[in-house]
Amino acid sequence: MFNIKKIIPLISLVVAIPLTISTAQAEYIEGMGNYTCNQTFPVKKLRWEKDRLNSYQFFSRIVSHGERIGINSFKVGILEQGDFNDSKGISTTKLLDFNFTDWLKNKSYIVNPWNKGTWLKANNFYKIYNRPVKRNHKNLYLVYQMNFYKQINGKWDMNNLHKNYDCQPYEITWCGDGIVDNYYDKALKKQISETCDPQDPNKLNWGNNGCNLSCKPIS
Q1: Terminus-to-terminus CA distance in the chain, angstroms?
Q2: What is the sign, positive or negative, of the torsion defined by CA atoms of 112, 57, 86, 80?
Q3: Dist. CA 119–CA 139, nearest whole Å
Q4: Which residues, in sequence order, are CB contacts of 13 under 8 Å at separation 6+?
Q5: How many C-beta neighbours within 10 Å does residue 185 have?
Q6: Secondary structure class of 134 (helix, strand, coil)
Q7: 135 and 171 in contact (C-beta within 8 Å)?
Q8: What is the model's pLDDT at position 27?
Q9: 60 contacts 103 by C-beta, under 8 angstroms
Q10: Per-residue DSSP letter, 52
Q11: Beta bridge partners of 116
């Protein structure tokens, strides 16, 4: 079986730049350059809690649509609206460590048509120490750049290195963000359930005396 590792030097680089995003989709990340998202996934939620430190492990999945590809290298760009992981001046680049998964390595970095799986994963966790000023789908934004070669008519085209950009937006939720949350957090393996929210302008499910900071109605 053809082993792409014998021909392609594998290089991995993480670029994580904390800055404020002013548009729905950033088009430039320092260290990654200009890009256009090939696909933007639905917004995922991260949870901040005052009495619990929640951690999340970031990853990227692939579905190969009718082509056989050999993955050569990657970059990960991270845009933040604030210092949510309490980096204390340390570059987020040094705090997050991405690498190819065993799933991909066991395939010799080759993904056959219609294969799907997790190809890239952080070796450590992003911890939510701080919450944003305002909840929105631009709180945290990850861009996964995959560099790959294609097999054409049974032969590898080593003269053309292709790039694919998958974009994953995140919003950070908390009791007091103005939205009554009810959803299951797969990473935390628990249900996020609020009866009300003290900042909800519609005052949904408020008691006679409002809603407390635990998102419970006050009778």
Answers
A1: 69
A2: positive
A3: 24
A4: 31, 73, 74, 75, 76
A5: 17
A6: coil
A7: yes
A8: 60
A9: no
A10: B
A11: 63
Per-residue pLDDT tens digits for 110-143 = 999 999 999 999 999 999 999 999 999 999 999 9
Q: Which percentage of the chain shows pLDDT scores above 70?
A: 84
Residue 92 — pLDDT band, cuts 50, 70, 90?
low
CA dist 79 and 138 (Å) reads 8
DSSP one-letter code for 210: B
Q: In this structure, what token pair is assigned to residue 44?
A: 């995922």
Distance from C-alpha of 110 to C-alpha of 79, rounded to nearest angstrom? 29
pLDDT tens readout for residues 6-43: 444 343 444 433 333 333 344 667 667 788 999 999 99
- CB-based contacts of 180, cutoff 8 Å, min separation 6: 194, 195, 196, 197, 200, 204, 205, 215
What pairs with residue 69 in β-bridges? 111, 150
Helix (H, G, I), strand (E, B) or coil at 5: helix
Q: Which residues contact 141 (CB under 8 A, 6 or more apart)?
A: 21, 26, 78, 79, 80, 167, 168, 169, 170
Tokens of 205: 């499910």
Closest to 134 in 3D by CA, of 178, 164, 68? 178
Q: Within a 10 A sphere around the Cβ of 217, how many other Cβ atoms?
A: 16
Say if residue 50 is exposed, middle or buried (CB neighbours under 10 Å; 0-12, 13-18, 19+): exposed
Give 193's pLDDT tier (boundaries 50, 70, 90): very high
185 forms beta bridges with 190
Residue 63 has what pLDDT? 87
